[in-house]
Amino acid sequence: MQETKHQQIRSIISQFIHRLHETSGNAISHVTVTVHGELQHFVPDRRISHFSVTKMDGVAELSYQDMELEAPITNMITIIATEKKPRQQ
User: Fold this and answer.
1) If DSSP codes are grouped into helix, strand and coil, which group holds residue 61?
2) Helix or strand (DSSP H, E) at 19
3) What is the pLDDT of residues 18-75, one digit of tens each?
4) How far apart are CA 10 and CA 65, in angstroms?
5) Closest to 79 measured CA to CA, from 37, 17, 30
6) For the whole model, what pTM was predicted?
7) Which residues pair with 66 in a beta bridge?
8) Torsion over CA of 25, 19, 78 and 72, rounded to 10 degrees?
9) Contact 77, 66 (CB under 8 A)
10) Helix, strand, or coil here: 49?
11) 29 with 82: CB under 8 angstroms?
12) Edge to edge, what strands does the sheet with 74-84 contain?
């Protein structure tokens, strides 16, 4: 079975956090990761927050989803996606 985009991202970030823990032990107590991606990177059936954007040129809406991975270091992962404004002709 092929992994979906969101599963691939979770796996890569999880590997990163585990490797970081192997390297630093308890010297690092928290990891925060922000991924700027697309809506396809969100985990289905999990809450997605949306809000309108007025101050980013060409962007109509920003969406994000937070997740925490089981890992030896406390973590918070946020995936952000933007929706572009339709071009005016």
Assistant:
1) strand
2) helix 5-24
3) 999 999 988 999 999 999 988 888 888 899 999 888 777 778 888 999 988 999 999 9
4) 12
5) 37
6) 0.78
7) 78
8) -40
9) yes
10) strand
11) no
12) 30-37, 74-84, 59-67, 49-52
